[in-house]
Description:
Elements: H1 13-36, H2 40-54, E1 62-63, E2 66-67, H3 117-133, E3 146-150, E4 154-160, H4 177-191, E5 197-202, H5 216-233, E6 241-246, E7 265-271
Parallel strand pairs: 5-6
Antiparallel strand pairs: 1-2, 3-4, 4-7, 5-7
Helix pairs in contact: 3-4, 4-5
Amino acid sequence: xxxxxxxxxxxxxxxxxxxxxxxxxxxxxxxxxxxxxxxxxxxxxxxxxxxxxxxxxxxxxxxxxxxxxxxxxxxxxxxxxxxxxxxxxxxxxxxxxxxxxxxxxxxxxxxxxxxxxxxxxxxxxxxxxxxxxxxxxxxxxxxxxxxxxxxxxxxxxxxxxxxxxxxxxxxxxxxxxxxxxxxxxxxxxxxxxxxxxxxxxxxxxxxxxxxxxxxxxxxxxxxxxxxxxxxxxxxxxxxxxxxxxxxxxxxxxxxxxxxxxxxxxxxxxxxxxxxxxxxxxxx
Length: 283
């Protein structure tokens, strides 16, 4: 009796199983790639076909008398009438674009202009000042002595004393050479601004002067006036100065520590107001 050939074509059984597994993996990766690259329009078409096939109904959402979709909630609405829209302007031939309604309108408007010009000028002035100061060789050592901040009153530039690094000689109205160079660099930038200038001098509490008849009131005022003289020397016109004030120790920068060296300072304020007449106006 002849023996059956169990081997068949001679291919091992495990190889067939392995080939089936590889085919399944290939199909799996093809599906992954096809899902990762989606066509939204085709997906919407398929979703719509599935919705129609299974009879999915839209959910009704209501908000008051009128539904969100625009369908009335009630079958019959009572006392519904169109309201007349009130115009906010009188139409004229001149166009005016500061109204809530556009088109040819009267030159009266109820929308306030956006006040962006003044902050832009102050931002440019602050950037120009920093750029001018960076040209000084020793600006790194005195960078902590310079404070530039925008307040409700305007752009405030303060030259403050630090421990071991003062802006003025002790008890004197005369500034150090570094302070003089700082003010000289400020002058061309301030000269280009239309704002008036207020310079205020401040001292610390308990500060003494060499002359008993010369108080901190005179000292703070003289230091502010010295700063004005330097700015005027380097081009700032005299009619641009609004005031030169000495406050002594009445307005410390750090009220919790009135004896702190940083309370000694010169404040140069570019006032946030339009000058009464242009700076370069000549009647």
